[in-house]
């Protein structure tokens, strides 16, 4: 990978735009067939890379200029997808694994795998596995942002009354004190 997510990690330097992902496109071409990813062969000419707002809740986004009906038609006829933009959150520059994972995810969309199905998930995991939450400061920061916005700051067990600080987005399954199934 290039400087955008590797050598510049830890620096405050943000390139004008993310580096064009030539190497990752080559990897996708080896892994995908034309039926799965009909737009892949057009990406080198039609893809534009941008940074999205760092305060955006998304890590990345893919935007086609054509509407969904036109994209469906072009996909079926194996025509060009037209201009496509992949936007990455600048916070990714601090986490090369998450940068590559997010970029692979968005490139799969840009290639024509539009749904978040099992094929999409397995390919992203194979090409660029996500970092563990414990290894990614970016993911930890995002989790904290989400937790700050949630109304419940702590959990209270409906059985024993034990109270503990909320550290996860999802509701607990059991009370850590009495071990009974959690009910608030």
Describe what you observe in this structure:
- By secondary structure, the protein is α+β, with helices and mostly antiparallel strands.
- It folds into two domains: 3-138, no CATH class; 152-184, no CATH class.
- Helix content is 34%, strand content 11%.
- The chain contains six helices and five strands.
- It has helices at residues 22-31, 43-46, 68-77, 96-111, 118-127, 137-149; strands at 47-51, 60-64, 84-88, 154-156, 163-165.
- The protein has a three-stranded mixed β-sheet. The chain has a two-stranded antiparallel ribbon with strand order 4-5.
- Helix 4 (96-111) crosses helix 5.
- The model is unreliable at 1-11 (pLDDT under 50).
Record keyword descriptors for this entry:
disordered N terminus, alpha+beta, two-stranded antiparallel ribbon, 3-stranded mixed β-sheet, 2 domains, 184 residues
Structure classification: alpha+beta
- How widely separated are the two ends? 47 Å
Count of strand segments: 5
Fraction of residues in β-strands: 5-15%
List segments where confidence is low: pLDDT < 50 over at least 5 consecutive residues.
Answer: 1-11
Total helix count?
Answer: 6
Give me the side-by-side strand order of the main sheet.
1-3-2
Query: What's the gyration radius in Å?
Result: 20 Å
What's the shape? elongated
Q: pLDDT average, as an integer?
A: 88
| Main sheet overview | 3 strands, mixed
Task: Domain count, please report it.
Answer: 2
- What is the string of helix and strand elements? HHEEHEHHHEE
Determine the fraction of residues in helical runs and give it as a percent range. 25-40%
